[in-house]
Each structure stands twice: as C-alpha cells, then as structure tokens.
Prior knowledge:
Elements: H1 12-18, H2 27-32, E1 35-42, H3 49-68, E2 79-86, H4 91-103, E3 108-111, H5 115-126, E4 132-134, E5 150-152, H6 157-174, E6 181-187, H7 190-203, E7 209-216, H8 224-233, E8 237-241, H9 244-256, E9 263-267, H10 274-279, H11 281-284, E10 288-291, H12 299-310, H13 318-336, H14 341-349, E11 365-366, E12 369-370, E13 376-381, E14 384-389
Parallel strand pairs: 1-2, 1-3, 3-4, 4-5, 6-7, 6-8, 8-9, 9-10
Antiparallel strand pairs: 10-13, 11-12, 13-14
Amino acid sequence: xxxxxxxxxxxxxxxxxxxxxxxxxxxxxxxxxxxxxxxxxxxxxxxxxxxxxxxxxxxxxxxxxxxxxxxxxxxxxxxxxxxxxxxxxxxxxxxxxxxxxxxxxxxxxxxxxxxxxxxxxxxxxxxxxxxxxxxxxxxxxxxxxxxxxxxxxxxxxxxxxxxxxxxxxxxxxxxxxxxxxxxxxxxxxxxxxxxxxxxxxxxxxxxxxxxxxxxxxxxxxxxxxxxxxxxxxxxxxxxxxxxxxxxxxxxxxxxxxxxxxxxxxxxxxxxxxxxxxxxxxxxxxxxxxxxxxxxxxxxxxxxxxxxxxxxxxxxxxxxxxxxxxxxxxxxxxxxxxxxxxxxxxxxxxxxxxxxxxxxxxxxxxxxxxxxxxxxxxxxxxxxxxxxxxxxxxxxxxxxxxxxxx
Length: 405
C-alpha cells in the first residue's frame, strides 16, 4: 500500500518491488488476504534520497522474503504489506506519515535513515504505542527518551564512537603512530554535530590532537574553502561525518587540492560505499571509515550481496539495515502470535533474534537498544570494501598510512 499524499514520493518500480497495494484497491481484494501492514518511512527524494532508497530496498526485500517463506506462520501465514512513504528529509513529514499510516492500520513501523526523521517519527508512533524498528538513525536519544515502543537493532552513536576510537588507536599504533592530529568535518545537523562532538571528546584519549571542527550544511555544493582551511591546518587525519553527496564531493576536493594526509578516517561517512568506490576509484582508494557492515565471514552475506547486485543495485550498509529492521519486527510478531501492540513490544523486549549475518550475537535489548550490536573499521582496497578491524571479522589488513601519491 502506498500512502498517496503530497508527501509521498514513490516510483512505480519501487511500489511493485514492495508488493504495495493502493488505497484505491477494492474492499473485496483487501479482505481476501490477511495482511500485517508495516509503515516504511524514508527520504526517497531530496538530498538524502540515495540512502533512503537503499534502506527502502532492504525493507522491501525482507517483506518479499518473509512472504515467500510463508508469512507469519503463527498467524496463519499472514503476509506483510508495505505502507510506503517519502519523508523528503523533513521531520514534520516523517511525523505526518506516521499519523496517516496509523490511521491506515499499520501494526509496526521502520525507518527513517536520518536521525532527525527518526526522532520525529518515533515520537509520533509513541502516541499510538505502535512498535517502531529503527533501521538507520544513530543518535542515542532515539532510544533514551523512555519511548517503550522504539527498538534499534543496530549500534547507537555512543557504541559506534566507543568502537571507532579503539579501532583507530590500534591501527595507528601498529603503524608506529604516524597520526597525531586531526580535523573533523561534519554536517551541521543532529547526526553530524553529535558525532563530531563525541569524536573530539574521545580523540585526546588516544593521543590525537583535534585541530578544528568544521561544520557544513546539507546540501553543500562547494568544499573549496573548507579544504583550503584543512590544508592550512596540516592535520594528519581528516575525519568525516556527513551524508552521501557531501562525502564524495569533500573527498574529491581533498584530492584536487593535493592535501597531504596520513589517512582519511570517517566515522559513519554516509558516502563511504561501493557506489562511491565505483564512481571515483582513484579518490576512494585507501580511504577508511568506521561504520556498519555485514559479517564478511558469514556465507549468507555473500549470497545477500549477490542478490542485491544482481538486481542492479549497490550493496551499501543501508540495505541490510532496512532488511533486518523488518526481520526483527516479523520475528516479534511470529513469537507473539499476534500484532497486539503490548504483546509485540513484550516480544521485542525479550528478543534473542539471531537470524542475521551482521557481526553481532543474538539481540539483547536494554531500553530499546541492542547491546550486542557493533560497527567495524572499513577500507577501500582495489575497488572493494574490506573489513580491517577487529581481527575477528577482518577480511584484509589495513593500508595505513596511505601511500604517497
């Protein structure tokens, strides 16, 4: 089902892939199949469209896989039905979509890629006590506000920064500690600002001086002034926390201006993905990021990646995020045997979901946050994305410092 409002941006191809019906479908057709409606809210137009669409792709893949394997078996094989909405990168639209989808009968929600959208949407969903499975949206406050209906399978900001600094420290020390200073470049919204502040507070503990924090707007069309400022500061590291378009533009500008660095080490770099590696292989080579990725040693991950790429899409972290956010909800409904809100929330609270190929163990929720989740250090090497830390999940050793041009 597609929420047809001035806020909904949806291509026909996406709707078909999701198995979505329309609000104009005959009542008889609706009654023929029991369904569990899931609100799927992402920015699929505007500055965040690529990442939002990737999250949606993962969600619709999960819905298709669950339905193909028999639906929610404890509910007589009830099929999942997507209610698709485009938040357009605007928090008020994300909240409005929750209201519309709740009225349309949503039993659960997923979304919303960006933290400001997730904050608004989860607050709206709390009015109805409808379970919300966050796919991407990292700020701690999404799950620390006491909203009993909100669950995040993936790491929050504190957990991610808590891993990013030991990873950088380990990689740097093994190379003889060539990195001693950093400049942090970040988008100026909720995500980038909080991420940059957390990094700045932690870098001193691993012996790296923060020379400056440089915020920028989303969107930003020209990074020349910021890069010239970086060049004048002469840091060893440039650390980046921003979204898809700005990430790639900043990286290109650093190369164009011949900024001499030990490494670029982004934390949650929104454009650190295989699309960027393909489009700008020379720029991307040896760039590093601490981010979410699948367990490369789990054979299911290679099968999943092939399925994504065979469909003509790029494999990015957002795809398994969208996928497992839906799978988490479905597991709760399966165990609850019902879409009753209280029963579903209780099932999520007690979840030990392990049918995944992320580098986590079974879920353990505390106040809606999965304590078993963790991110990993990644690096572009020869056009592919390699895990370089921790050793238990690594596919290749890091190249650090990066070779001189």
